[in-house]
Design goal:
single chain, 120 residues, alpha+beta, 3-stranded antiparallel sheet, 38% helix
């Protein structure tokens, strides 16, 4: 079976569904800020899960008055540069500020500090 050019494969989110998805985490919590930033990067930059997991602060650079994820090693070891839309950078900045991230992995695991016995 030959592939047709210009035919999208898989399931695609509508613009409304995508907006609802990245707006669903609670923007007032640290976990919510992280989740919103993760969803924004996946949707707005088209990163794969492994690329997101490997994303470091050093990958984010300003190039020609625009933000980009540079020297990202993706599928098959290919190195690529990905533009970062302004709205994605805004969510990243909110996450970095709240989590006090200034270097290293952008989405390292964290343990939320909850009072003893607190329930979600």
């Amino acid at each position: 079976m030959s592939r047709k050019l210009g035919v999208r494969l898989g399931n695609w989110l509508s613009a409304k569904e995508a907006r609802e998805l990245w707006q669903s985490p609670d923007a007032e919590t640290l976990k919510g800020k992280r989740d919103r930033a993760i969803i924004a990067v996946l949707l707005g930059c088209g990163l794969r899960r492994r690329e997101l997991a490997d994303l470091s602060f050093d990958h984010l650079q300003r190039r020609e008055d625009r933000w980009a994820i540079v020297d990202l090693i993706g599928k098959g070891g290919h190195v690529r540069t990905v533009p970062v839309p302004d709205w994605v950078k805004q969510f990243l900045d909110e996450w970095f500020t709240a989590a006090r991230i200034t270097s290293g992995n952008c989405f390292a695991a964290f343990v939320a500090q909850e009072p003893f016995g607190a329930m979600e």
